[in-house]
Amino acid sequence: MFLKKALTPRLLLNDVSCMRNAQQILRHVNVSIHDGGALVLTGTNGSGKSTFLRMLAGFSKPSAGQVLWNGHDITESGVFQQYKLQLNWLSLKDAINERLTVLENVKWHELLEGKEGKSLPALQLMGLGRLAKEKSRMLSMGQRKRVQLARLLAIDRPIWLLDEPSVALDDDGVKLLEYIIAEHRKKGGIVIVATHLPINIEDAMNLKLPPRFPRKMTFVDMLDRSELM
Ligand SMILES: Nc1ncnc2c1ncn2[C@@H]1O[C@H](COP(=O)(O)OP(=O)(O)OP(=O)(O)O)[C@@H](O)[C@H]1O
Question: Please, which pLDDT band fits residue 221 given cuts at 50, 70 and 90?
């Protein structure tokens, strides 16, 4: 019994393909992730990193293959109801309500989760303790990203889907991001990150998505060839 449990990955992508707007974006992806695992998605603009995360979040269904959670297909409605409660999604849209205070912007999500008490410590860990009572409209881009990271901590769900989580963060912010990812994984959490920027995630699996179109000469190539360079 224990052996079977240990061998079943928490998440398994089994020969998954995914379409978007009638275009084939992902082709035959196979990945298995156990508790404590991390997957880093890289690839050129438009290669499908966000599509990959959206599919795992249930916004789009695989056009072929299966995404299995605990061995069950997440597209089955009974399974999806349970599966979606495992997810914590950080996207480029930060859903910050500028009329609320910084603390309220985290607390609101925590309350929806039926939890309380973690929002302020999460903001403090992210270096925003002194701004907790300020209106969110005065936050900088990096501070807004830190609020999103505080939400991850306050909501505290096991599977983190992070789309470009380090964009706008300063060096300390990136270190904090790396720290909370490492701590989350120590507790058995799973982290899946799409990124163009280097993020230090120990023993992460790396999946580089191929470019969607054959590569043509780019503006950068033209500059390289230019005699002016
Ligand atoms: N809202 C949309 N509707 C239809 N097609 C879309 C939409 N957004 C993106 N696509 C298509 O899906 C492809 C993959 O986009 P996706 O956002 O997943 O790429 P990405 O790897 O995350 O890119 P980036 O590095 O620029 O963030 C794009 O090439 C685009 O053609």
Answer: low
Q: Whose CA is nearest to atom 17 of ligand 1?
A: 50
216, HSE (Cβ side, Cα atoms, 13 Å): 2
Q: Measuring CA to CA, how many Å separate 149 from each of 4, 73, 119, 122, 129?
A: 34, 29, 11, 8, 13
ipTM score of complex: 0.95
- Span 199-223, average pLDDT: 80
- CB of 54 closer than 6 A to ligand 1? no
The CA–CA distances, whole Å, from 211 to 130, 132, 222 equal: 44, 42, 19
CB 115 within 8 A of CB 155: yes
176's tokens:
């904090």
**What are 141-178's pLDDT values in tens digits?**
999 999 999 999 999 999 999 999 999 999 999 999 99
Instruction: Report the C-alpha gap between 200 and 165 in whole angstroms.
Output: 12
- Copy the structure tokens of residue 17: 């393909």
- Cβ of 53 closer than 6 Å to ligand 1, yes or no, is no
Query: Is the minimum distance from the CB of 42 to ligand 1 under 6 angstroms?
Result: no
Q: What is the pLDDT of residues 18-35, one digit of tens each?
A: 998 888 999 999 999 999
Query: Which domains does the chain possess?
Result: 2-209 (3.40.50.300)
pLDDT above 70: residue 193: yes
Q: Which residues are CB-contacts of 35 (< 8 A; sequence separation ≥ 6)?
A: 10, 158, 188, 189, 190
Q: Which atom of ligand 1 is nearest to the CA of 48?
A: 18
pTM for this entry: 0.90
